[in-house]
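Re: that backbone. Tokens:
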């Protein structure tokens, strides 16, 4: 027998809390229990996919996300996760289509725009990729991921001053960020500046 709406909401809230505390396996166990009694619960499938994604278990994340969009064609989260997995696999064309669909369903979402901008840039649409990444950063100005992605794009188009500023900002926000530290050093080498310690 499916849980009541109130029970399902409580379980989803508990799973969300576990995810925020990086307790992904515990969240997955809870969500799988909910889905056993309510297999058509789209929110549970989306959360399951998101937790699997956090553990980089892409096939399991993909399976749950595909179930979510099959049940609910308006599941922006399902399309975002499928697009992200395609991005990781460097399946740029698929990634672009899925992320554009997610963006249409949930406009002005910083994370969707970040991934879409990266994909557009990788596909060769450099200007649109940078513009999309700038939009993502405007929505979430303290995202080290967006700062580093945008910095990498500017580095590729040889705007080292802008790239360096973005990487420095990412490092200020997240001093342990290995990617930002390596990129600051790389920009320094390219510009002939002394390396930051």
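Recovered sequence:
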């Amino acid at each position: 027998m499916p849980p009541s709406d109130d029970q399902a909401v409580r379980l989803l809230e508990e799973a969300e809390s576990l995810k925020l505390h990086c307790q992904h396996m515990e969240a997955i166990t809870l969500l799988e229990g909910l889905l056993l009694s309510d297999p058509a619960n789209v929110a549970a499938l989306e959360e399951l996919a998101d937790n699997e994604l956090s553990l980089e278990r892409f096939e399991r994340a993909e399976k749950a996300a595909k179930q979510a969009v099959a049940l609910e064609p308006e599941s922006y989260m399902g399309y975002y996760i499928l697009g992200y997995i395609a991005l990781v696999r460097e399946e740029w064309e698929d990634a672009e289509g899925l992320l554009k669909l997610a963006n249409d369903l949930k406009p002005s979402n910083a994370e969707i725009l970040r991934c879409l901008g990266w994909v557009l840039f990788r596909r060769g649409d450099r200007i649109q990729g940078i513009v999309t990444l700038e939009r993502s950063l405007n929505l979430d100005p303290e995202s080290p991921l967006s700062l580093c992605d945008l910095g990498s794009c500017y580095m590729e188009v040889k705007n080292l001053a802008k790239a360096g500023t973005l990487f420095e900002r990412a490092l200020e926000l997240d001093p342990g960020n290995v990617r930002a530290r390596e990129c600051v050093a790389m920009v320094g080498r390219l510009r002939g500046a002394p390396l930051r310690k």
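The longest helix spans residues 5-20. The chain has a mean pLDDT of 92.
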